[in-house]
């Protein structure tokens, strides 16, 4: 998984009824765009995350998802 500052991260809910968490990558801490990422989520929470298989990256420049 690779991302850039400004890309959007979407963590899909893991259980029925749990909503997706959407955030903006504010800093890439790994080499060459790899995790971990510093993320500011829509609810105002900020943290460092290493995305798992339930996460997708939406690239800001192309609009594509990975």
TrEMBL record:
Domain of life where this protein originates: Bacteria
Tell me which InterPro entries the record gives.
DUF1918
**Species for this entry:** Streptomyces lutosisoli
- Cite the residue spans of the region called Disordered: 14-66
Coiled-coil regions listed: none
List compositional bias (Basic and acidic residues) regions by residue number: 55-66
Concerning Pfam families, the annotation shows: DUF1918
Q: Where are the transmembrane segments?
A: none
- The identity of this protein, by name, is DUF1918 domain-containing protein
Task: Show where the DUF1918 domain sits.
Answer: 1-57
């Amino acid at each position: 998984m690779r991302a850039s500052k400004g890309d959007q991260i979407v963590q899909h809910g893991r259980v029925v009824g749990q909503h997706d968490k959407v955030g903006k990558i504010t800093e890439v801490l790994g080499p060459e765009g790899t995790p971990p990422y510093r993320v500011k989520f829509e609810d105002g929470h900020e943290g460092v995350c290493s995305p798992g298989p339930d996460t997708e990256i939406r690239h800001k420049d192309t609009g594509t998802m990975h």
